[in-house]
Amino acid sequence: MPIAPTTLLSRRSWPETRRVSEILRKETVGGALLLAATVVALVWANSPAAASYRALRDHEVGPEALHLHLSLGTWAADGLLAIFFFVVGLELKREFMAGDLRDPRRAALPVLAAVGGMVVPAVVYVVVAARSGGDALDGWAIPTATDIAFALAVLAVVGTHLPAALRTFLLTLAVVDDLLAVTVIAVFYTDTVQVTPLLGALALVAVFAVAVQRRVRSGWLLLPLAFGAWTLMHASGVHATVAGVLLGFTVPVVRSARAGGPTAGPGPAEHLEHRFRPLSAGVAVPVFAFFAAGVSVGGLDGLRTSLTDAVALGIVAGLVVGKLVGILGTTWLVARVTRARLDPALSWWDVVAVAALGGIGFTVSLLIGELAFDSAVRAEHVKVGVLAGSVVASGVAAVLLRARNRAYRRIEQAERLDSDGDGVPDAFEEADDAQA
User: What digits encode the pLDDT tens for the residues 79-118?
Assistant: First the structure.
């Protein structure tokens, strides 16, 4: 049996396309807030009041008895991003259990593209950073992550008519990318593990799993369990965001009738995703960006100095070149191996544009950068590299998307046509009939 559909990047079912469109609208708003938070942080950190920014970021709060007397920056990285990864866990499980990606032939392309989009940037980084020696190679995973919120913010400005198939491909790729990234964090960026707290965290995750499997939705029970699992995971030495992914994976997936499933109301995963996605996109990620992106550039001389560091250059090369080559190359290989053809409405230039968008690495890249290096100077260079690489990748994607916008408008018009007025566009009815 072939491992990919005979047509690459073809339309999905209408319920799945509608669901993904709703998710992307929320993430686009979150992307705008992310950009705003980043700009505020950069301006503040490079203003005469920079000391007040650092004082706010480093201000410590929390109970010392629980070893949670942490800086606000650490609370954002370890605490708020756990919410982000909880939503990632929900989304990924839902995609593979009830979404179109339950079909292995459809799942193969975005999963393989995500893997290629991580391996190649890591190799590019190692090649560039190896000449620096020392601890430079510790940051090999920094350019491997795609920031979907940042990418969608770019799309909202320059690629508003991107076809549904490409948007879905980008979202799925980024979600798989995030899962692989948190796996990398757990395996490669955990120095020591305290077994007792780790077992306690896993026990609370198991209790949480039993509760949600029994359809418990009460926050008074689920939230303390989740917070307890996060606290013990943090104490174990494993990055606390891992708890978020594990908790997300425990939630059962039952599709509502609106999403093409059997239940009248939202299933447990839909219910929790509806509650936590706005918190993740609108609060958790922007606040993390605010505390993580405040790098003191030091003017043109400081920027030049940062970009002469092999670590920063490796990050830029990994995001701009590695991501594009990894995603595009993997997609092309899948097409060659399976003898599949690209959807007739699309061009390989569209795949290049989406691959360039994959080079926008921000949230998880900054998180890995904080874990990889203890040096404050090198940490600043990492931030400059991530920001510079993301801006360049955004520019490349913007040029390609603008060049194809006229074709995207024609596809969008075709996807909106509903001649029989049943609420399902004709193009999706035809696609469903063809798949049947």
Answer: 999 999 999 888 888 877 877 667 777 778 888 999 999 9
Q: Would you say residue 44 lies in a domain?
A: yes
3-state percent helix, strand, coil for the chain, nearest multiple of 5:
75, 0, 25
The answer to whether the CB of 150 falls within 8 A of the CB of 26 is no
pTM for the structure as a whole: 0.83
Q: What is the CATH number of the domain that holds 43?
A: 1.20.1530.10
Q: What are phi and psi of 212, to 5 degrees?
A: -70, -30
Print burial letters for 23-58: b (CB count within 10 Å at least 16), e (below 16). bbebbbbbbbbbbebbebbbebbbeeeeeebeeebe
Residue 112: which residues within 8 A CB-CB, separation 6 or more? 330, 334
Q: Amino acid identity, residue 194?
A: Q
Tokens 């940062």 belong to 306
Beta bridge partners of 342: 8
Q: How many domains does the chain have?
A: 1
Per-chain mean pLDDT for the chain: 84
1 in a domain, yes or no? Answer: no
Residue 207 lies in a domain: no
